Amino acid sequence: LGRGSAVSMAQQALSYTVFDCKWVPRSARLLCLGSAARGTGLVQLYELHGARLELLREIEKPKPIKCGTFGATSLQQRYLATGDFDGNLNIWNLEAPEIPVYSVKGHKEIINSIDGVGGLGIGEGAPEIVTGSRDGTVKVWDPRQNDTPVANMEPVQGESKRDCWTVAFGNAYNQEERVVCAGYDNGDIKLFDLRTMSLRWETNIKNGVCSVEFDRKDINMNKLVATSLEGKFHVFDTRTQHPTKGFASVSEKAQKSTIWQVRHLPQNRDIFMTSGGSGSLHLWKYEYPAQRSKKDSEGSEMGVAGSVSLLQNVTLSTQPISSLDWSPDKKGLCVCGAFDQTVRVLIVTKLNKL
Amino acid sequence: MPVWLREQSWRQTLTAVYLSLPLRGARATAASIFCSEQYLKVSIPPFLFEAVLYAPIDDTNSTAKIGNGNIFFTLYKKEPAMWDSLTLANADKEKLQCLRENAVLKAQEKAKEETEAKKIAKQEHKKYALEATMKVEEAERKRIEDLKEKERQKVTKELELWNNQQKDGDKYKSIQNKEELHQEIEPLKERKNEKMDKMRIPNEGTSKTRLKSTKGRGSCSIFSQSLKEEQLPAPRAAATIQVNFTPRVFPTALRESRVAEEEEWLHKQAEARRIINSDLSELQDLKEEEKNPDWLKDKGNKMFAMGNYLGAVNAYNLAVRLNNKLPLLYLNRAACHLKLRNLHKAIEDSSKALELLTPPVADNENARVKAHVRRGTAFCQLELYTEGLQDYEAALKIDPKNKNIEEDAEKIRHLIQGTMQN
């Protein structure tokens, strides 16, 4: 078996459409979030026993659930924050899931993507959750403040809105600094600085942006990967921002179909996996250039993008793999959920040698 | 006429006949030897030797050696017996002929059999080779599967170990915590009432679902946790950031591959609005607003809604004279003609509208569906059902969810089948 080859550990056929799957931190358990055929939301908790997944718990909610995160909760509590098809943001205590710990109707339309920061012992500062929705707004919530978001990135009055497809936190290396990156369906990527409450950078990658992720949320922002329709993804070197040119980037066309998700390996921030519309997973490694920044003709610093190489490639399904999550506890263990109503657990081998 | 060679010399044993044929200077390399069970022929142009043998020989094992100015045959007899002579003595011409032909036939048959045997042998070899490669591949696959299985088991073991570690750690810490809890109850009760209850309950029960097990590897007791909470900054002051998007005319997501088509469509639309065929002298006595194709289109729409189809057609006619690149004008005029039962004109107008609605983008989907449906209806009313069905199917392709179109298409199909049966 070569480096980084993915070995399938277990898979489970589900009777509903799974939109998101997440490992429960500090355990061998995973959650599947989705929408049942009758239009209700489902949260299922599985435990991995060897080559099998055992269903521990099933929770049904009135509205289908699109996305979830553990990012803003402490390791003791491990509350799940979910966004559903109706625009509601809820935080659940999975031990007592009847009533949410926090609930707000945050958006007028489906919440497409959610991210949390400040929890799980990662990063500094207050725990916050960001949601991006089809109504074009990106809102940041603090679980201690009910009903109103602490930050709201909305379209200018009177302008037509674009769907926001993905959000991610980054740059949370001390208590004040934080950025939110949002990707939209018209190819816009916008970086909002929460400390100064302003737009820090934007660009357009000419294809709808399906997924953005920083390589680490809790460091000075280093790299940002944005994936899009038509099989392309871009890696931006976010250490050096040029006043006009923005961030340096390298882009790669992996396959003909949409790249639905990108996830960085928690244990090595230069390795990331992309999941595609053709049911395949690609494992990539980023190599830094000899010099990460150089001076341009006017003397201002600009970044130099490195290169991306494909390590491995495996096709698991004929349907798109819409969600992907690495286990933060076991290196190489990952779960992916696809539109063929199957959730698969894989182990990617020999990552230590990379 | 070939020259017969007759100076053969021969001797025999019980099982074999040794025949020696002098070549008399002819070149041995050109010798062609034909031998069957009872017939032997050597032809070295211009010399010829033939012999009908006394008794059958085993021609497969017999050999011929050419050299030293003669050919030496070693013929093995089929039946060990002494021959009276080499050849059959009293063979008349006809018999000779017969024998010759038989010999030739037999030789041919043997050749055929040989090729058959060769073919079968080849197939066997191929099959064998295939099976061998299959076995090798199977072995390879199995090896990889084994490696994978080993990895899987390794990971499972590690996970189990880690899980057990967790369990032990948790149990230990939960016991520790219970004691601490009892100590810390009073001062923290007011502040953390609810939280404490939550924590206590799973501790006191044997926590099966350890999801909410209170202690992870981070901080240990409620005490330190409360400290940490107070260190968290207050929630951010609420603020709004206004966002501008890269403008996009179409409601769909941006795709690089569609950009060229979309640009073309937008360009066409823009141009269409700008063209005005203004070299018509009758236009001079029209009011200002009547020269505006859009205004005329609206007028036409209103008249259509009220049922004044002729008036609507007039309005659209004038609009087309002013600007013949607006597809909607033709589309609406087609609807009027349908109502007026000017079916051929309806077809013409729908076709013109469809022409103008290229390239096909998501923006002009609605218009294209309408054009196809109107043209389809006109065809059907003219009893050209197959053409009509084609148009309905095109409409369905663009908009597969439309029930009306589906039902109409079904009706047309039935009609066609009905007329065919008659």
Describe the structure using short key phrases.
heterodimer, A: about 350 residues, mainly beta, Methylamine Dehydrogenase, Chain H, four-stranded antiparallel sheet, globular, B: about 425 residues, alpha+beta, Immunoglobulin-like, Serine Threonine Protein Phosphatase 5, Tetratricopeptide repeat, four-stranded mixed sheet, 10 helices, about 15% strand, elongated
Structure write-up:
The complex is a heterodimer of chains A (354) and B (422). Chain A contains no helices and 30 strands. Chain A is an all-beta fold and 354 residues long. The mean pLDDT of chain A is 88. In chain A, strands 1-30-29-28 form a 4-stranded antiparallel beta sheet, with no helix packed on it. A 4-stranded antiparallel beta sheet of chain A has the order 2-3-4-5, with no helix packed on it. Chain A has a single domain, classed as Methylamine Dehydrogenase, Chain H, CATH 2.130.10. Chain B is an alpha+beta fold and 422 residues long. Chain B is 58% helix and 13% strand. Chain B has 10 helices and 9 strands. Chain B has helices spanning 93-204, 222-231, 259-274, 293-306, 309-322, 327-339, 343-356, 365-381, 385-398, 403-421; strands spanning 3-4, 9-12, 16-22, 32-35, 39-44, 47-52, 57-67, 70-77, 239-243. In chain B, helix 4 (293-306) runs antiparallel to helix 5 (309-322), helix 5 packs antiparallel against helix 6 and helix 6 (327-339) runs parallel beside helix 8 (365-381). Chains A and B meet through strand 1, strand 4, strand 13, strand 16 and strand 17 of A and helix 1 and strand 9 of B. Strand 13 of chain A pairs parallel with strand 9 of chain B. Chain B: It is found in: Cell projection, Neuron projection; Dynein axonemal particle; Nucleus. Chain B: Residues 104-154 form a coiled coil. Chain B: Its main location: other. Chain B: This is Dynein axonemal assembly factor 4.
